[in-house]
């Protein structure tokens, strides 16, 4: 059983776990485990690791339209180097500061492989789930796509400075708060745009028709992609970009556009069924953590 | 740098992280990472692992005198066996149910070694820290000591049923809530009684004088300990028992004793300095996770 099937099974049993974060009594809680082999290419600094670990959970809170309050992390490593721990805490604290959350500490664990688990707690009085999209609405994404894929390519080429820079994404908490009043369904793009669309379609029992030309591909992708196929791969399937993918009526989106603070791109339309790009089925594949 | 020194460094930098849990705006958040090699002897079921992972964090909330609201876990394993995941979730849910918390889901991560991180969120309007003990008060512990040490011995002997049973401790959340009104300093005994006393003494700038005869040693210890030295080792230094160690005036404790719902044993007296047992220095050693 792969992670996706297992998560599906748990979602069926636990309900809220199937969304980006669980909401109970207006409290949002979400946790993410990351580790060296699959999440941190050689050259990733501990600062960047702290940033991404907590950033991933902040993004889950953003996807619920919630406000982020506090973050903790469990830090597992073979040795406890003070500079490395301090760098991790600095990265975690700095990404929190962008969103109004406070990094309040955590746990250390002696572990063969560098492994971290971040948790963010927040508040969502009126959470946005994945299940509210209706045909006739439009489908949007915040910011740009493909930064993480481009970052991994930069790491592969030894450009670790650039890789670390691209890896430090801004969680869309403030945008999510603004979008909460207009979005009918929302999630983050951590599994890649393609898979996010399929997950929203499944949860909302609808379809999507998007146009390739509309995709807001990050400029960093053009710096590393050899051709259009690779450009599409990095922006659509690679995932871990932590942008918000949401549905809403275009008029409602226009009403909050100025307040959101990040670009909002309309990718296409909510339909009755099927996920299509330029009229062709969009494969349901993406990042499996 | 070992875990203890590293935690000390982080505590200095982050303040609340030096206590059992962080408290921010009345919200308590705490996280714990556990993994197969050091925390789950061969024979530990996934049900028990779920129980202990979340139980450890529930105990941290109890140690702050808080109420537990919600729990999440990140589950890292080489394969995602549906029965194992379900058992883990069942164990996590059952220990939550004992304390009024709700297990609301989590994250799955593909990981070579079975590794889990639990997080519990709760509320503490009037948290109890480690730093409020004063000379003349008394020092107490809830329940009994040594169950986890005895459990590990049972696992070593192949008595996995008994080991799992002893491993499923009851987090003292309800007791902690009652004690919050009388305890001047409190923490849990996860690092062992001896180390807990030294940590409380350091945080409160005081000492303790305890009497060996008063120690509430769990009956399970007598079933495995070959002699008095081993009995003391398992009950005093082994740790991971998750009882509450706290200071208070005896009169105040008598006032809540009936409401606490678990036995409260007076171990000795708060003094000006030094941690002594029967007049001899008590070594500052215990479980290092």
UniProtKB/TrEMBL annotation, chains A, B:
Domain of life: Archaea
Keyword line: ATP-binding, Kinase, Magnesium, Metal-binding, Nucleotide-binding, Thiamine biosynthesis, Transferase
Alphabetized SUPFAM superfamilies for the sequence: PurM C-terminal domain-like (SSF56042), PurM N-terminal domain-like (SSF55326)
One GO process term, biological-process aspect: thiamine biosynthetic process
Chemical reaction(s) catalysed: thiamine phosphate + ATP = thiamine diphosphate + ADP
Binding residues annotated for Mg(2+) 3, in chain numbering: 20, 60, 188
GO MF term list: ATP binding; magnesium ion binding; thiamine-phosphate kinase activity
Residues annotated as binding Mg(2+) 4: 20, 30, 60
Pfam families cross-referenced by the UniProt entry: AIRS, AIRS_C
Residues in PurM-like C-terminal domain copies: 135-274
InterPro entries hit by this protein: PurM-like_C_dom (IPR010918), PurM-like_C_sf (IPR036676), PurM-like_N (IPR016188), PurM-like_N_sf (IPR036921), ThiL-like (IPR006283)
Misc. comment: Reaction mechanism of ThiL seems to utilize a direct, inline transfer of the gamma-phosphate of ATP to TMP rather than a phosphorylated enzyme intermediate.
Role of this protein: Catalyzes the ATP-dependent phosphorylation of thiamine-monophosphate (TMP) to form thiamine-pyrophosphate (TPP), the active form of vitamin B1.
Membership in a protein family: Belongs to the thiamine-monophosphate kinase family.
Classification via PANTHER family: THIAMINE-MONOPHOSPHATE KINASE (PTHR30270)
Annotated HAMAP family: TMP_kinase
Protein name: Thiamine-monophosphate kinase
